[in-house]
């Protein structure tokens, strides 16, 4: 069994409510932090823990906190990014749905560390019932003296508010999220100034992912150094992985980042192997925007070493032969899946979600969607593949926010690793409508087991 | 800037048609109180949700103008937000809106078949509403339920692990609820 720091109590009866959560040892970190520690000491512990942002970018959380400006007389804000929208990712939802008080506990400690007296949870609008769960938990925490004025007699005041978005992937980008919190369209801002200097209402702001803030709880309870001993290298602590696609046991798993990708896919403790006795063809290991890898490069690096479920190993080989940990959205494709079609649905997603501010992204995502549609529907031309490559290259790095990159990378990786499947769609359009390209050579030279 | 709407531009007659109850107005006040003084525009997204839920499931221009007046912002500030976010409906929709996810992970688990089945069963394509005004079918992009695919959103909740049988049951359930309410 892997170590569980976050989800261990997820299925304890009544854990969604304050009483059971407290009985199970909840809110200890609030007591410790507010009674025994200074805000600076908490930032120090988070730095020592090596905790990296769990939303996708993997930036060291303690360092992000240390950037916050503290001008005299200007309020500061912590904002929790619960706008989980990256295809393949549903871990934050799970955490909030089952353990709302764990998130609140992390938010209270983090608010104290950053000096935020009004903290916001920006949750994607579609998670309407989870917003209600969180609001109930907030009321319970307040009734029990964990929120409001003078928390636990410490003199620290804090309120947490839930703010529902309304359907826009882009609002997961922190400056778009801030715009949205101000009641505007989710158009990302040009940085600098960074939110730590001028964020929501031009006040210093830190935006952190749900899982990142929840991880502050075990860090304070066990100490940053102990937390850093879990995992490997710069992948410290545990990571929530949401696994989906053609596997036997889709769901949310907490891993300690020392297990191999092969174990994660085939072990009964995790994904339980590929569904319906099929073979593994490809995988997008960190949410839809990270590069897709064929089975052979997923399970082993280009050097032939075992690939592990952590930040360093998943990105081993760069984009040429590796991918990224990203948000932990682990999407598995079996041998019957069509890479062109999969890439098409993702291109459609990014076209739909582009905010429209930057022309390379606004226009380019639409062009990529159209070209992929015609390739998938037997109307592609030989030149389309190079055209796609050219378009994605011109989007990447040429936009205000990373959505452009996020739209470009899946297309680039699909062509990089599955070019022959694209060519087959052009060469054999009728055949491509009738059947799929199959596993082809994508698992060579390794052996891909059949489940069951 | 924050002057209330020019009364001449919005005839009072239309304006009267949308009005929150005292109870809902108290909710609006509570939402506005979440944000700093003078930053009431921050309440726009939540108040638009409330308005859409209250005034027939969609946002008419009258509704949007009313929200603008409540928050003391210009109507254009509401329009530009309402047109940006996919959850706000700018046209009337059916009593039950089936929002079926069609992004990659749901596609891998067969959402195309589910969409096709709903299309056949209800006789409407994506974006259309049944003649009796009961059902609207929408295809949407990733709703964050990839492990429980195929899925759709129905009102406030998700319906997951969809099969044709489940779709039938959901349709029957909606029809029954609608009949009971009439």
Describe, in plain words, how this protein is organized in 3D.
The complex is a heterodimer of chains A (452) and B (182). Chain A is 43% helix and 12% strand. Chain A is built from 19 helices and eleven strands. Chain A has helices at 18-23, 28-36, 39-49, 61-66, 91-98, 100-114, 128-143, 174-181, 210-222, 224-229, 261-266, 295-299, 311-314, 318-321, 339-353, 359-376, 384-395, 403-427, 429-434; strands at residues 77-82, 118-123, 159-164, 205-209, 231-232, 235-236, 239-245, 251-255, 280-284, 293-294, 329-334. Chain A is globular and about 75 Å long. In chain A, 56% of the residues are buried. Chain B has 182 residues and is α+β, with helices and mostly antiparallel strands. Chain B is 45% helix and 10% strand. Chain B has helices spanning 12-17, 22-32, 44-54, 61-71, 75-82, 104-108, 111-122, 164-181; strands at 96-101, 135-140, 152-154, 157-159. Chain B has a four-stranded mixed sheet, with helices on one face. The longest helix of chain B is centred in the C-terminal third of the chain and has 18 residues, at 164-181. Classes of the chains: A alpha/beta (452), B alpha+beta (182). The interface between A and B is large, with 56 and 41 residues.
């Amino acid at each position: 069994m892997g170590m569980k720091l976050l989800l261990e109590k997820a299925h304890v009866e009544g854990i969604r409510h304050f009483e059971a959560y407290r009985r199970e040892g909840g809110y200890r970190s609030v007591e410790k932090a507010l009674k025994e520690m200074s805000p600076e000491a908490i930032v120090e512990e988070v730095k020592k823990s090596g905790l990296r942002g769990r939303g996708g970018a993997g930036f060291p959380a303690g360092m992000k906190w240390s950037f916050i400006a503290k001008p005299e007389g200007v309020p500061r804000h912590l904002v929790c990014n619960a706008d989980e929208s990256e295809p393949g990712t549903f871990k934050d939802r799970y955490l909030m749905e089952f353990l709302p008080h764990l998130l609140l506990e992390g938010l209270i400690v983090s608010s104290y560390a950053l000096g935020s007296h009004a903290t916001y949870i920006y949750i994607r609008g579609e998670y309407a019932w989870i917003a209600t769960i969180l609001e109930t938990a907030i009321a319970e925490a307040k009734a029990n003296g964990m929120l409001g004025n003078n928390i636990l007699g410490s003199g620290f005041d804090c309120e947490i508010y839930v703010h529902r978005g309304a359907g826009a992937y882009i609002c997961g980008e922190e400056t778009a999220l801030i715009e949205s919190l101000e009641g505007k369209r989710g158009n990302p801002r040009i940085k600098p100034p960074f939110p730590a200097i001028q964020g929501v209402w031009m006040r210093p702001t830190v935006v952190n992912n749900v899982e990142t803030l929840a991880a502050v709880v075990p860090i304070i309870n066990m100490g940053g150094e102990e937390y850093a001993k879990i995992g490997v290298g710069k992948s410290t602590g545990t990571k929530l992985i949401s696994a989906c696609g053609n596997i036997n046991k889709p769901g949310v798993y907490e891993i300690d980042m020392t297990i191999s990708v092969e174990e994660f896919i085939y072990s009964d403790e995790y994904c339980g192997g590929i569904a319906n006795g099929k073979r593994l063809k490809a995988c997008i290991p960190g949410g839809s925007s990270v590069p897709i890898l064929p089975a052979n490069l997923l399970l082993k690096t280009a050097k032939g070493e075992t690939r592990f479920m952590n930040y360093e190993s998943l990105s081993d080989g760069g984009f040429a032969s590796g991918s990224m940990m990203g948000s932990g959205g682990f999407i598995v494709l079996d041998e019957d899946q069509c890479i062109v079609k999969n890439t098409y649905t993702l291109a459609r997603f990014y076209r739909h979600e582009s905010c429209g501010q930057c022309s390379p992204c606004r226009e380019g995502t639409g062009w990529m969607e159209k070209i992929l549609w015609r390739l998938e529907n037997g109307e592609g031309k030989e030149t389309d593949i190079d055209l796609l490559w050219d378009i994605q290259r011109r989007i990447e790095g040429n936009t205000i926010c990373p959505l452009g990159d996020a739209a470009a990378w899946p297309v680039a990786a699909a062509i990089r690793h599955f070019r022959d499947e694209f060519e087959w769609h052009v060469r054999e359009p009728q055949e491509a409508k009738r059947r799929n390209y199959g596993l082809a050579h994508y698992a060579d030279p390794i052996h891909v087991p059949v489940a069951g | 800037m924050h002057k209330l709407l020019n009364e001449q531009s919005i005839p009072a007659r239309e304006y009267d048609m949308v009005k929150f109850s005292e109870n809902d107005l108290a909710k609006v006040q509570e939402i506005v109180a979440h944000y700093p003084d003078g930053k009431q525009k921050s309440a726009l997204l939540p108040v638009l949700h409330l308005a859409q839920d209250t005034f027939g499931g969609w946002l008419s221009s009258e509704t949007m103008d009313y929200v603008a007046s409540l928050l003391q912002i210009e109507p254009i500030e509401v329009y530009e937000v309402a047109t940006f976010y996919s959850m706000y409906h700018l046209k009337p929709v059916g009593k039950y809106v089936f929002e079926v996810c069609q992004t990659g992970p749901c596609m891998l688990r067969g959402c195309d078949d589910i969409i096709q089945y709903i299309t056949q069963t209800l006789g409407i394509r994506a974006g259309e509403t049944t003649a009796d005004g009961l059902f609207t079918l929408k295809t949407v992009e990733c709703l964050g339920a990839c492990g429980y695919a195929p899925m759709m959103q129905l009102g406030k909740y998700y319906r997951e692990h969809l099969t044709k049988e489940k779709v039938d049951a959901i349709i029957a359930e909606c029809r029954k609820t609608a009949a009971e309410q009439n």
